[in-house]
């Protein structure tokens, strides 16, 4: 079984302020690192876990069952958490956790096609039952659509050149593997870019993965539903790993915690806000955690709380 190191574990659990009798949701179960700690703190409470990865569910179920039976794993994307919870007569939740992005286990499973470090068929599906794969994106998207996702989801400044190279290469034969794609990306970049620190395919691979799994739209849907389902005094903790995710979280939290400015023609009227930011300054991993787990380096934790009393 995969040995998982949860990121920002102590900081996340401390900020969730677990109520032993509360209802909690881990929207991104993964290998159960955060869920295990939450479950161990529940006495009369209950934990609902969401994930779309069958292998992650299988691994985590064994781990969680060894702690308690006060949990249920739901094979659903967290964008559907509202409907899934209501089917279980859950309308209010004391705390939500979102640990976003692809898991370390998924990166390290070479045959899943998430990593540019392993040669595998282009796949990148978090939910292996989904239809759209990285192969489909690379071989059937137009040049303009490829350029758009590389720019929007990967912030890749050589998006146009890479998209042109992909379209040119696939005219002779389909592009089937991660290493084939890496070679195309490298051949599209100037030498000065290849000399820079970091893998030259990182941003393009990120962009394709986000497209295949519709990650950013799912985040907007799921997080907004979580905010509206939050019990008074409850909290939502969100761990992000890149600027696109973090921007969505920051803006959504601002929407619910910022009082606004009224209109230009009417006297200034500050709307009443029902939520507060727990940490106005983003929480980052400690130097010790980064040294022990280098993948935590880009992690950021933001936390929001629903006020205990309505104003």
Topology of this structure?
Layout (H helix, E strand, L loop, with lengths): L8 H8 L6 E4 L6 H8 L5 E6 L2 H12 L5 E5 L5 H7 L5 E7 L4 H5 L25 H7 L2 H12 L4 H12 L7 H11 L2 H4 L7 H12 L1 H15 E11 L2 H15 L17 E3 L9 H6 L7 E7 L5
Parallel strand pairs: 1-2, 1-4, 2-3, 4-5
Antiparallel strand pairs: 5-7, 6-7
Helix pairs in contact: 7-8, 7-11, 8-9, 12-13
Structure description:
- The chain has 311 residues and is an alpha/beta fold.
- The chain has two domains: 183 residues, Rossmann fold (3-Layer(aba) Sandwich), CATH 3.40.50.150; 96 residues, Putative methyltransferase TM0872, insert domain (DNA polymerase, domain 1), CATH 1.10.150.
- Strands 3-2-1-4-5-7-6 form a seven-stranded mixed sheet, sandwiched between helices.
- Helix 7 packs antiparallel against helix 8, helix 7 crosses helix 11 and helix 8 crosses helix 9.
Order of helices and strands: HEHEHEHEHHHHHHHHEHEHE
Structural class: alpha/beta
- In the residues, how many domains can be counted? 2
Identify the overall geometry.
globular
What is the tally of helical segments?
A: 14
How would you characterize the largest beta sheet? 7 strands, mixed
Number of strands: 7
CATH superfamily of the largest domain: Vaccinia Virus protein VP39
Strand content: 5-15%
């Amino acid at each position: 079984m995969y040995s998982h190191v949860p990121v920002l574990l102590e900081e996340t659990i401390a900020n969730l302020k677990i109520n032993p009798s509360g209802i909690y949701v881990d929207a991104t179960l993964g290998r159960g690192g955060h869920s295990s700690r939450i479950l161990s703190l529940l006495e009369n409470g209950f934990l609902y876990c969401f994930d779309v990865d069958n292998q992650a569910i299988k691994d985590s179920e064994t781990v969680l069952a060894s702690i308690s039976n006060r949990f249920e794993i739901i094979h659903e994307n967290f964008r559907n958490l509202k409907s899934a919870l209501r089917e279980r007569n859950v309308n209010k939740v004391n705390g939500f956790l979102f640990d976003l992005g692809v898991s370390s286990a998924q990166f390290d499973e070479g045959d899943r096609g998430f990593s540019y470090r392993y040669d595998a068929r282009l796949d990148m599906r978090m939910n292996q039952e989904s239809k759209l794969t990285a192969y489909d994106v690379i071989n059937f998207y137009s040049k303009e659509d490829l350029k758009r996702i590389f720019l929007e989801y990967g912030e890749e400044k050589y998006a146009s050149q890479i998209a042109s190279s992909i379209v040119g290469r696939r005219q002779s034969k389909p592009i089937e593997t991660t290493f084939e794609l890496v070679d195309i990306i490298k051949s599209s970049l100037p030498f000065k870019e290849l000399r820079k620190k970091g893998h030259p395919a990182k941003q393009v691979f990120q962009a394709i993965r986000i497209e295949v799994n519709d990650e950013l739209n799912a985040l907007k849907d799921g997080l907004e539903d979580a905010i509206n389902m939050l019990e008074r005094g409850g909290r939502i903790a969100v761990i992000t790993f890149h600027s696109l995710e973090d921007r969505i979280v920051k803006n959504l939290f601002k929407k619910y915690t910022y009082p606004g400015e009224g209109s230009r023609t009417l006297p200034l009227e500050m709307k009443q806000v029902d939520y507060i930011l727990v940490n106005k300054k983003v929480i980052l991993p400690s130097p010790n955690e980064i040294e022990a787990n280098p993948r935590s380096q880009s992690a950021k934790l933001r936390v929001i709380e629903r006020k205990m009393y309505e104003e």
